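> example.struct
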């Protein structure tokens, strides 16, 4: 697995989103412990959330077998926040979402004599090597290895998905025009047609250990694995067969 590095940056002020909830003996913001009482600083809460997220993300990537580099950015908290100093160890858990990527919320809790809970928002960015086009591609073009390269991108921003190996795209047909340096998504590709309407094909009919072969004519285009209509040239019967490769279709008896 690639070495993963973690960067911690605070969000620029003013932060656009404060997601704070305080329970138990605490009141509203600015009405925390009595004057002079020791409090838990926002820096401690931010550090707790950061450390928890670093551990959680690393564990998630290892369990999922994902290679990549990640960044953790914890939002600033409201400076008016006053929480009693916790007389027990703080605990942290992922409030949302279930996967520790993208926009996340960490629940930090104190279960001591003056319990409280605060929700700390953060952003986890995951960078992976993904397939990117080297040149513009027209709709209907067949992609070759020379048309592809691997570049690092934040996959959290790739809502249509992405591909991570040239073999996943090479030999497939482009479904829409693509720009140079564009991340390839599965929806941009379809299997290339290996049988075309009017092609002479070999029909392979299989039943257990018995295999029969006959000549046929494709009545439509098809990619490998797709069903096409085929005319049996001996009987003139039209059947549906599965494309098994260039010039070869299969039917089950």
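> example.seq
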């Amino acid at each position: 697995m690639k070495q993963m590095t973690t960067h911690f940056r605070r969000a620029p002020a003013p932060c656009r989103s404060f997601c704070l909830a305080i329970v138990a003996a605490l009141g509203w913001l600015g009405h925390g412990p009595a004057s002079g009482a020791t409090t838990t600083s926002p820096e401690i809460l931010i550090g707790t959330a950061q450390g928890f997220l670093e551990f959680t993300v690393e564990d998630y990537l290892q369990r999922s077998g994902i290679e990549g580099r990640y960044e953790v950015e914890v939002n600033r908290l409201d400076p008016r926040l006053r929480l009693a100093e916790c007389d027990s160890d703080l605990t942290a858990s992922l409030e949302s979402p279930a996967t520790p990527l993208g926009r996340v919320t960490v629940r930090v809790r104190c279960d001591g004599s003056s319990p409280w809970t605060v929700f700390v928002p953060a952003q986890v960015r995951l960078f992976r090597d993904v397939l990117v086009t080297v040149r513009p591609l027209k709709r209907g073009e067949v992609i070759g290895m020379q048309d592809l390269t691997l570049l690092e991108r934040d996959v959290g921003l790739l809502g249509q998905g992405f591909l991570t190996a040239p073999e996943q795209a090479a030999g497939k047909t482009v479904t829409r025009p693509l720009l140079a340096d564009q991340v390839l998504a599965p929806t941009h590709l379809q299997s290339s047609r290996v049988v075309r309407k009017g092609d002479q094909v070999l029909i392979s009919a299989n039943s257990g250990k018995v295999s029969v072969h006959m000549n046929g004519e494709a009545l439509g285009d098809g990619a490998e694995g797709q069903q096409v209509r085929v005319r049996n040239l001996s009987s003139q019967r039209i059947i549906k067969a599965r494309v098994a490769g260039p010039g070869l279709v299969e039917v089950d008896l």
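> remarks
Residues 124 and 215 are 58 Å apart (CA to CA).
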